[in-house]
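Issue 218. Parser rejects a valid record. Input:
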Amino acid sequence: MIMSIYNDYIKEIEERKEQGLHPKPIDSAELLSEIITQIKDLDNPRRQDALKFFIYNTLPGTTPAAGVKAKFLKEIILGAVVVKEITPAFAFELLSHMKGGPSIEVLLDLALGADTAIAQEAANVLKTQVFLYEADTDRLKEAFKSGNAIAKEILESYARAEFFTKLPEVPEEIKVVTFIAGEGDISTDLLSPGNQAHSRSDRELHGKCMITPKVQSEIRALQAQHPDASVMLIAEKGTMGVGSSRMSGVNNVALWTGKQASPYVPFVNIAPIVAGTNGISPIFLTTVDVTGGIGIDLKNWVKKLDAAGKPVLNEKGEPVLEEVYSVATGTVLTINTKKKKLYNGNRELIDISRSLTPQKMEFIKAGGSYAVVFGKKIQTFAAKTLGIDTPAVFAPSKEISIEGQGLTAVEKIFNRNAVGVTPGKVLHAGSDVRVEVNIVGSQDTTGLMTAQELEAMAATVISPIVDGAYQSGCHTASVWDKKAQANIPKLMKFMNEFGLITARDPKGVYHSMTDVIHKVLNDMTVDEWAIIIGGDSHTRMSKGVAFGADSGTVALALATGEASMPIPESVKVTFKGKMKDHMDFRDVVHATQAQMLQQFGGENVFQGRIIEVHIGTLPADQAFTFTDWTAEMKAKASICISQDDTLIESLEIAKSRLRIMIGRGMDNGKQVLQGLINKADKRIAEIKSGEKPALTPDANARYYAEVVIDLDVIDEPMIADPDVNNEDVSKRYTHDTIRELSYYGGAKKVDLGFVGSCMVHKGDLKIVSQMLRNLEEQQGKVEFHAPLVVAAPTYNIIDELKQEGDWELLEKYSGFEFSDLLPKKTARTAYENMMYLERPGCNLCMGNQEKAAKGDTVMATSTRLFQGRVVEDSERKKGESLLASTPVVVLSAILGRIPSIEEYKTAVAGINLTKFAPASKQLVG
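Output the parser choked on:
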């Protein structure tokens, strides 16, 4: 009799068929067990379907279904079960595609078993596998020590890295056909919209949201016309993949333009090829590497130069661009992987060596970076076990050491955390290194994918070398709908069992905490020498160096405690002058970007580099505003250089927040949070004693560029404008258009204000209450002419505001206040002219739940101004998300328009804005 779970699956298949979708891949042990029952029943009418589900539609790795599949294949190989469609040889082939976990356990059982013929077959498959963990390697080691010949043979193969060397070589020529996906920067929101975050783990369904159905059909048409070519997705006159790392964006591109990773694993594609006139966003490029893809910096448009070699400017004072070569949609090009050049026929277009470094060529050959990372680990293990030197198979790490040159802050951190480098060698920027990771963060809309990646690489527990890891609930905080209710508890349970501190307690003991992930990670980082990896582009800490990463790189960091990357170049940012009383630090952040572009003739020297900001006197919460924004500056990461006393203050704040988390019951059996407090105490003692002062660069460090920000010239609030009607499409929706308040003449209508996201801190929420009090005294009462949405980043901020009397004033003017007991079940898209006190979390900034009304002009403290993110277009007008400081946002909502400079100065008189003063001395070691 067919069980109900199978009936439910068949019903789901019919429902998906109506949406044009194939059956969902199987991860359930119960469902696969029933499918196996049907396979064994030769008269079952559904037997052929069951066979297809078992062979082609079961997820590999450590999923519950993979365990059942591996066990059944073992029975077939041993002859305990006979399935004519699955011979023992085919069973071995299926095991070889299961990537680890239960399949490795079965293969080891067979390889170390009594039947010599089966053992040899199992050994041959094992030699191709790399996703082995301690339990697996321990078995091999013990068998080898006991004199097992098969174990020795496997170890010798691993030591020679035959799992890699016997793979097919990368073709010398890769033919591509171009497809311009858009003009200007292409954000990952276009490739994988935030409002479809709930479907990311359902790869086929999520693939349908990439760009538009029209574009998808155009890609299919190109593939039909050029069956021997890969479609290369291009950002014309822009950068590909800005905004976030977003593995789902790369997955979607691979789904439509790549190739299937395994015939037995559905909708997991690899090898996408992407390009941009200005290259690929650094964090997105890392994700491309994960899938064995290629990212190309085309440089097909360059600045037009006059006879004197200076850029020719247009009437707006912007450089005029001229086309060097065309990549119009449908152009057939050739990537030559030997010569490392891009060709159109016989015409050489550009050198692409940076896209095809020895390390990247290994990723392409292996089908992704994970296989190389795990391969190196298993090779090292095998050589050590055999007592031999590790044979040189993989490209050696690039080690750049410059005599007499000091170290930047990031170079110091990488040198301290580097693994497997030449002992005693000091490394500078450009070196390729493996580094140990101290803190890891997983956020909730990518977390399900991270869990899938962990299952796929057969990881079951967090690496012991990771100091602390956190799974957030902030991206799905504002609306607890059916999708969130189905996905998030499952995610929290998986991550909690894996070893992470989780925002929600799977056991329901402690209060659910939807605090913004970056704020929590900033408190969990208790050593400015730390390396942090987080599943979000805004993983930018004000302590340590943090890298936003895709869900796969997060999984790799959780499983291995390591990451691999080149040491980036740095740009030094210092400040001079004095902040004016009516300015907020957010204005300094925006001015940094504007002044940098001005100083370097429009060239963004931050792109792809570390911003080493000499913040000096600003504590971690406030300094985070700067580091957070550096993602929009297209920097790879940023580092805050602080004075000793400021760093101690920041660490004491972090300790108090960690104690709050412990008090709530969030620590786990290994007392991770208490361990972080202990590390903070140790670090504070080192600073106070002078044993190890706060991290600073060397005085003779070398930078790609040095930028000095003049605070004296910042006289008006600064607004990042998406410039949605710019005649040059490539100039729309960038973060580079920074305008002064007076540009708008006090006349531009504002439909919605938003104070929230990771960019704000406790001081911002106090500014809201102080402004309301100020305006109340000036006008008698405050009326909102546009709605104002306020979302504190963390619960502890609300607790502190309640103690200090600010929350009471906010409640007085609010027309809505969140309730944890009655969370919203549906998203809000229409707002009344009042203040909404929303649940802590990302809220409007994320774009996956709450939205502004279509066509609105939104003034926000967030970082997201991409088309369709916070606000979508309507038929009457384009949606706009302008980004500004908290006082500008609040006043804009109250007035229903952007204020004049006079109105702004009056409204903020006497208010304690976020202040900043440069350090009084140079911060160098």
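Fixed in the parser; the record now loads. The first helix runs from residue 4 to 18.
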